[in-house]
Design goal:
Oligomer: single chain
Number of helices: 13
Structural class: alpha+beta
Radius of gyration: 28 Å
Helix content: 10-25%
Distance between the termini: 43 Å
């Protein structure tokens, strides 16, 4: 009897292994999916993402089986499902190019199992319908017969209908020998991106971590290599780098900023600051402290007796240091003085353009340092050469938040986060990490089932 049970368990084990190999170890297909005109491709390995969720479920079944519904929920109107309307392929591909497709990223064509179900689903999610095009914010779903293309646009007002129709009618595709496809075919990551400019990035969902790494092409020069301070992760947050002010992406980002609003708040011109600034910056938020002040006011009762009234006020006090380097000696500091952003008040040199906190201004030969302290710390900071580096302790920050940067601390996904960091080296190697508090479960599994 015992021997028979052993054989049964062995048989079940072999069957599960075969099912696993059949579903998760099959190669993804790229034939007739990417137009020959594509200059950039993103590959999302859906089987591998599913693998993460399945194994997270097997390790932590109670988390997934917890009932979150009530009797009242069970009487809600019927829900429609995206996955019931679309046949999800082994891998999802998005592509773009610098000419006919430059306004958006487009998916390769999906096959629809139930177009009516998909249509009802999109309408319940408040997508606007225009013939067979459904749009919401920067997302577009385009239907044709039993086929679907999903587009993510850079500008939600842009019209990409003509490009979508071209993709539906495409006849000329990249083959497996294409130099653009080769890095994706050889890569086993959850998500990866490749371009004709030789950019390559890969992203993976690990236990407690989401990690992006890769290398931008040698001509990517939005950021410039320079000697930068090496802040430690004892800080709450820091970012340091040097921006190439002539780069088109930087110029475009300036157009997005509401300059009249910036001027109204600070009484400064963003264009003027940019002209005097070299592009080098560093911001180090060491800590955020809070203290409670007692405020005493007075009133009078009905008999005109003076009555003392006490109230308390919570004050948030950031310990920070922010440095902007000038194009020429003292030019940026002098601009702030001229515009009264820096004022001497009771023998204190204050930066008053940002009145939420008491900040001091310190001139150096080629920079302006704005700090919460009267004197800048003379402790030397280690320096090294890179383009961009940053760190943010999210878990600690949400305990005491600054008024102008507020995170929704009650959000179930924000509650999961511990910290994030990133670095772009002087050779354009990129590393981005997002760590969760719980390092025992897969990152993707926690996002889906916190």
């Amino acid at each position: 009897m015992k021997k028979k049970r052993v054989y049964i368990f062995i048989g079940i084990g072999i069957l599960l292994m075969l099912l696993y190999l059949f579903r998760y170890k099959q190669d993804s297909t790229f034939i007739n999916r990417i137009p020959n005109s594509a200059t950039a491709i993103i590959n999302i390995n859906t089987r591998q993402l599913e693998h993460h969720i399945v194994f997270d479920f097997l390790k932590h079944p109670i988390t997934y089986l917890k009932s979150e519904t009530t009797a009242r929920d069970s009487i809600k109107k019927p829900k429609f499902s995206l996955t019931k309307g679309i046949e999800i392929p082994k891998n999802i591909l998005f592509f773009t190019n610098n000419s006919t497709l430059k306004k958006a990223w487009y998916s390769s064509v999906f096959e629809m199992s139930n177009p009516e179900e998909l249509s009802r689903y999109l309408l319940t999610k408040n997508f606007k319908k225009n013939n067979t095009i459904y749009s919401k914010d920067n997302f577009v779903f385009a239907l044709k017969d039993k086929q679907l293309i999903i587009a993510i646009t850079y500008d939600k007002k842009s019209n990409i209908t003509e490009a979508i129709q071209t993709i539906f009618n495409e006849k000329d595709f990249l083959n497996d020998g294409s130099p653009l496809l080769k890095p994706i075919l050889e890569n086993a990551s959850d998500i990866c991106l490749t371009t004709t400019n030789h950019d390559f990035f890969e992203a993976n969902f690990k236990d407690g971590m989401f990690k992006i790494q890769g290398k931008a092409n040698p001509n990517f020069d939005l950021f410039i290599s320079t000697m930068q301070p090496e802040f430690t992760q004892n800080s709450l947050a820091f970012i340091t780098g040097k921006i190439n002010k002539t780069h088109v992406l930087f110029k475009n980002s300036l157009q997005i900023i509401n300059q009249s609003k910036f001027n109204k708040i600070t009484h400064l011109s963003l264009d003027s600051i940019t002209d005097q600034w070299s592009g080098t910056f560093s911001f180090n938020l060491k800590s955020i402290k809070s203290k409670t002040d007692t405020i005493i006011t007075y009133n009078y009762d009905d008999d005109f007796n003076k009555v003392e009234i006490k109230s308390t006020q919570k004050l948030i006090i950031p310990e920070l240091e922010f440095e902007l380097k000038s194009e020429k000696d003292s030019i940026l500091y002098n601009y702030f003085l001229q515009e009264n952003a820096i004022q001497v008040i009771e023998n204190e040199t204050l930066f008053v353009a940002f009145p939420l906190y008491k900040l001091y201004a310190h001139p150096t030969k080629r920079s302006v340092i704005i700090s919460d302290k009267k004197g800048v710390a003379s402790i030397p900071v280690k320096e090294s050469v890179f383009k961009l580096k940053g760190y943010f302790n999210i878990e600690e920050y949400i305990q005491n938040q600054l008024d102008f940067i507020s995170l929704p601390s009650e959000n179930e996904h924000i509650k999961l986060l511990k910290e994030t960091s990133f670095q772009l080296s002087n050779k354009n190697k990129l590393s981005v990490k997002v760590n969760l508090k719980n390092a025992n479960r897969n990152f993707l599994g926690q996002l889906i089932k916190p």
